[in-house]
Amino acid sequence: MEKIFKTLDEQITILRDKNLIIDDEVYVKNILLRENYFFINGYRFPFMKSLRDRTFIEGTNFRELYALFNFDRQLRNILFKNILILENNLKSIISYELSRRYGFTEKKYLNPNNFTKDPKKSRQVNDTIKKVKRQIINNGKQHTATSHYMNNYGYIPLWVVVKVLSFGIVGELYTILKAEDQEDIAKIFNIDVESLLTYLPIIANYRNLCAHEDMCYDHKTQKEIPITKYHKDLNIPKTNGEYIYGINDLFALIIILKRLLREDDFHIMLNEIFYELDYLTGRLHTIDIEKILDKMGFPKNYKDIVRMD
């Protein structure tokens, strides 16, 4: 069925017909105009009677939906700044290790011989090197540091180049490194290579969600993270022998950041998330916060992860 334009008054009528309480039309119209009626679609489900009966639970107020929307926005902001910290850490470590081993001019650090000799990855090696060179050309002129090196020295060292590379490209770069280089970098994070290879695209996925203001709190990733000691130590419940939380949900990202961020950064991040969860709890009246935590993949004792090694 074709979707047609609805005025703000018509939008409010639709919401009221679905049993949503609107106690201040001026307030709601302002939000719908600024945030877009479409945001309702993403945040309505916890407040609906059922997927079949798409009306709101008795007593649901528009302010509750908007509180969840704002919680997700603050959550994205918290995650995004910490993913950027991690991104900078990863770029710095990779550029240091590769420059130390292979040199700091483009011809040296992008030499195909520096990367995996696996014949199955030969095309990927060439494609990734081309992508790096393309981003240097496309983005290099926009940054003072890169243009300074190019204009004055005729090359851009890797520790400067990484500033203009996307997180996705840096992740691809890691996947084509020699096994010993991958291992040395993973050791700095105190994890194994396979875990880091799994984590990078998941982090990139959440980074994009945060950057583009997409829904985050109940997002599920295609990739699943390997079981960690945190799943066991938190006694995360299982169904049919499989953990129900911390596999491809937001709590899986929390586990990833627990393993990759510096301890102080991780604690600050979690405290900010805890604050936002407490703030949201005080604004929910028709549903319990546990319903939101379940969608996030957070076990009931999620706060215990702070104290774990």
Structure description:
By secondary structure, this protein is mainly alpha-helical. α4 (62-102) packs across α11 (193-211), α4 runs antiparallel to α14 and α9 (167-175) packs antiparallel against α11. It has helices spanning 8-17, 25-35, 38-43, 62-102, 106-109, 122-140, 144-153, 158-161, 167-175, 179-188, 193-211, 229-233, 250-260, 263-281, 289-296, and strands at 238-239, 242-243. It has 15 helices and two strands. Strands 1-2 form a two-stranded antiparallel ribbon. The termini are far apart.
Return Rg in Å. Answer: 23 Å
What would the principal axes of the Cα set say about the shape?
A: globular
Helix content: 55-70%
How much strand? under 5%
What is the arithmetic mean of pLDDT? 94
- Low-pLDDT ranges: none
Q: Describe the biggest sheet?
A: 2 strands, antiparallel
Instruction: Report the end-to-end length measured between terminal Cα atoms.
Output: 54 Å
Strand order of the largest sheet: 1-2
Give the class from helix and strand content and strand pairing: mainly alpha
How many alpha or pi helices?
15
Q: Element order, helices and strands? A: HHHHHHHHHHHHEEHHH
Tally of extended strands? 2
